[in-house]
Design brief:
Number of strands of chain A: 20
Largest sheet of chain A: 8 strands, antiparallel
Strand content of chain A: 25-35%
Structural class of chain A: alpha+beta
CATH architecture of the largest domain in chain B: Beta Barrel
Order of helices and strands of chain B: HEEEEEEEEEEE
CATH architecture of the largest domain in chain A: 2-Layer Sandwich
Oligomer: heterodimer
CATH topology of the largest domain in chain A: D-amino Acid Aminotransferase, Chain A, domain 1
Radius of gyration of chain A: 22 Å
Radius of gyration of chain B: 18 Å
Number of strands of chain B: 11
Strand order of the largest sheet of chain A: 13-12-9-10-11-14-19-17
Largest interface: A-B, 24 and 20 residues
CATH class of the largest domain in chain A: Alpha Beta
Largest sheet of chain B: 4 strands, antiparallel
Distance between the termini of chain A: 58 Å
Helix content of chain B: 10-25%
Structural class of chain B: mainly beta
Helix content of chain A: 25-40%
Number of helices of chain A: 15
């Protein structure tokens, strides 16, 4: 028997993804340590772990985000690897570095990869160099000279968007529709950027009016093999939060998707990327434009699993073990269609998180229906963390069948005691534009503004 | 916080069907527990918890995850034998994390009344370790 790089994994996350990771560990005969906060002490998934250890109070800053507490728990339990899940410390390069410095395996890419992709300008420069198409824009920061900026904007073509290099999350950006608006918009954004981010640097990008959000899943081992596993359409969003995801993206030329996927895989080889990752694109008028790369497992990896017939978390851990991928690009298949509905604990009107005790928890079933959830009836949903209760994932031979399965599954699902967005999902599945496929990232918010999906 | 405010909090908990509430401040902690089997109309238990005081004695809880020890591995006797007096700041146990030993410190004066967790087992944040009475 050969010795593996690790036999025991500390799962540095909570909720459904902690359980999802534990399931993959079981498949690989790896022992599990689940760390939890005081608020999650009584959770069912915590009791399922080989070892569970409380690392701090409910507040995430003192538990799931406390790198020192996580590393002490790893040392105390003898875990040799840390799986960060998504959110929390999963894209924190300094944490990845600390894990490795402790002699543990970080189940994810190198700290360097995380760092490059965390810097928007550096990520874009890297992708452009690797031949991944980006949103047309200025190369790096724009000059102070208005005439020079005006020439750049004219080359890109209006409308353009001015973004602060230090900004993000919707802050520090302004859309400019014609040359006459440029001077004022530049001055205001630069003042804001200096004040808010202490960095007056600005860059310009083409503003896309009606894009879709399409992403490519990649999987890479540490021996130079990089594969793309499929595409997903995550355009159904509210305030940049994905609500429904599907795979494959409807109504896009499959040859074009394949060529983009191949470029993503090539970029990974060039970067020496390892583990799983997602390239996010805006898609408009037949063109893909890179926006960012997520250097971690994503919530919606499930739809790719359903159409690809593989366990992405298992593969992610195998490559972290140092194994070579046996899978080849030719062996990656896409079969049928999958849709994921994120079932959240939230008020259907205000979208405020809903906390309380779940008094009824009826789950759907049948062929092609999968529910990833950490919840059991009687559980108390804590207000401390994100509101995801369950991922309802359906698969069908084609999109029509998947839509029907999703509708049936949602009709079977019932949650009492707290408010959920199940009704919103039912409305989305009856929405004509969504049923036709290919809606833009603004579609859901427009419909909500019309009151159509309440 | 006033009694009226506590009453309002309890009302909110009942409305939301939440049976436990904990509010943590810089130097205080409030914990409200609604007894599920209390008869309707009966007052619910209100306990203001400073994080240490439970029951008769004062409980010392773990602050870090690790293996709880009541004696140093190279000594034959406990750090503090049961029933012996302790003063605030006294070492009463250890938490072992790999080769690191962190102290478990008495927070109050009294005698070491009870060991609340089996020694040489894994404990986590908040695990009650010993009681000083």
């Amino acid at each position: 028997m050969t010795t593996r790089r690790f036999d025991k994994v500390l799962i540095a996350n909570r909720g459904e993804i902690a359980l999802r990771i534990q399931r993959a560990c079981r498949l690989l005969d790896l022992e599990t340590v689940i760390v939890h906060s005081e608020a999650d002490r009584g959770a069912r998934y915590v009791a399922l772990a080989d070892q569970a250890v409380c690392i701090g109070p409910a507040a995430a800053a003192h538990s799931y985000l406390d790198a020192a507490a996580l590393l002490l728990a790893a040392e105390a339990t003898g875990a040799q690897a840390v799986h960060p899940g998504y959110g929390f410390l999963s894209e924190d390069a300094a944490f990845a570095e600390r894990v490795e410095a402790c002699g543990l395996v970080f189940i994810g890419p190198s700290a360097e990869s995380i760092r490059i992709m965390g810097d928007k300008i550096a990520a874009k420069r890297t992708m452009r160099a690797a031949g991944v198409p980006c949103v047309p824009g200025s190369e790096g920061a724009v000059p102070d000279d208005l005439a020079a900026v005006s020439r750049i904007a004219a080359t890109i073509g209006y409308p353009v968007i001015i973004k602060a290099a230090g900004g993000g999350g919707g802050r520090g950006m302004r859309v400019v529709r014609c040359e006459a608006e440029l001077a004022d918009a530049l001055a205001i954004t630069r003042t804001e950027a200096r004040r808010a981010f202490a960095n007056p640097e600005l860059y310009l990008e083409k503003f896309l009016e009606h894009p879709r959000h399409i992403e490519i899943q990649v999987l890479c081992d540490a021996h130079g093999t990089a594969l793309w596993l499929g595409d997903r359409d995550c355009s159904l969003q509210r305030r940049n939060q994905k609500v429904v995801e599907e795979a494959p993206a409807p109504d896009i030329d499959r040859d074009l998707v394949a060529s983009i996927g191949a470029r993503c895989a090539a970029a990974c080889r060039q970067l020496g990327y390892r583990g799983v990752g997602t390239f996010e694109f805006l898609y408009e008028d037949g063109g893909f434009h890179f926006i960012e790369m997520n250097t971690r497992l994503q919530v919606e990896h499930t739809v790719t699993e359903m159409t690809g017939g593989l366990d992405i978390v298992q593969k992610q851990i195998e490559v972290a073990l140092g194994e070579r991928l046996v899978l080849t690009q030719a062996g990656v298949t896409v079969s049928g269609h999958a849709i994921e509905c994120r079932i959240n604990a939230e008020d259907p009107v205000t979208f405020a998180p809903s906390a309380g005790r779940i008094t009824r928890w009826d789950l759907p079933g049948g062929p092609g229906v999968r529910v990833d959830s950490h919840i059991a009836c009687g559980d108390v949903v804590s207000p401390h963390y994100d509101s995801l209760l369950a991922k309802l994932v359906v698969h069908g031979a084609n999109r029509t069948e998947a839509l029907k399965r999703a509708q049936t599954a949602l009709s079977e699902m019932r949650v009492d005691g707290i408010s959920t967005n199940i009704a919103l999902h039912r409305a989305i599945l009856q929405d004509d534009a969504f049923r036709a496929g290919g809606v833009t990232i603004h579609h859901l918010e427009k419909r909500l503004a019309q009151g159509a999906t309440r | 916080m006033t009694v009226e405010e506590l009453g309002q909090l309890v009302q909110w908990l009942e409305d939301a069907r939440i049976d436990e509430l904990q509010i943590e401040g810089v130097d205080s902690r409030l914990r409200l527990v609604l007894q599920p089997d209390a008869a309707p109309g009966n007052p619910v238990s209100l306990s203001i918890d400073d994080g240490e005081d439970r029951g008769e004695g004062v409980v010392v809880a773990a602050q870090v995850p690790g293996i709880f020890l009541i004696q140093h591995p190279q000594r034959a006797t406990p750090i503090v034998p049961l029933g012996d007096p302790v003063r605030p700041g006294d070492l009463v146990g250890l938490i072992q994390i790999g080769s690191l030993y962190t102290p478990v410190i008495a927070s109050t004066a009294g005698t070491l009344a009870r060991i609340l967790t089996a020694p040489e087992t894994l404990v986590g944040f908040g695990t009650p370790l010993v009681e000083i009475a």
